[in-house]
Amino acid sequence: MPITSSAKKAHKQSLQKRVFNTRRARAMKDTLKQINKLLTSGKKDDAQKLLPAAYKAIDKATKRGILKQNTASRKKSRLNAQIKKAS
Question: Domain range holding 76?
């Protein structure tokens, strides 16, 4: 446990950041799962409509530092390729 007041403050801040980061990661994973479910059920048009939301979630996760830039680019590229392949 933190002893000094600055360590207590840093610990409190890290707990708050953890909440935001888990929220961003969960939003990203949920949209990706939703698109994959639509693709497996054969609803390519609905998956195509969710693509901007997935890009937004991935970009926000990258901005927060949850994903690295190359990982985000790879996820977006593979997601786009999956949707094109489903046609």
Answer: 24-85
